[in-house]
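User: I'm preparing a small set of examples for a lab meeting where we compare how different chains pack in three dimensions. I only have the primary sequence for this one, and I'd like the structure in token form so I can line it up with the others. Please keep the answer compact; I'll paste it straight into my notes.
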Amino acid sequence: MSDVWTTIIVLTVGTALIRASGPVSVGGRELPAPVMRVVALVAASLLAALVVVETFAGGDDTLELDERALGVAAAGGVLIIRHDALLRAVIAAAVVAALARAI
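Assistant: Understood. Below is the structure token output for the 103-residue chain.
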């Protein structure tokens, strides 16, 4: 077996063990309310962090401001005006980024 397949198998088993550790450690008990509030916010904060890193990270640990930043700003503007307009925000981001690249 090659090193690549060994790495894939080890990572697969490790991921399964990590994912199973949560339900096993809780054991069907209710989590306290403060913990549940934090858990509810984790997905949104991770998504925001990924968007920021993918939008502004340049090569070699530099900050890069380009068309992507304009697209994210346009999406943010749409969502400030209407909180429930996610599809419109995505379309606005795509249009603004495309127009900025075309210029």
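A couple of notes for your slides: The mean pLDDT is 91. Residues 3-26 form the longest helix (24 residues).

User: Perfect, thanks.
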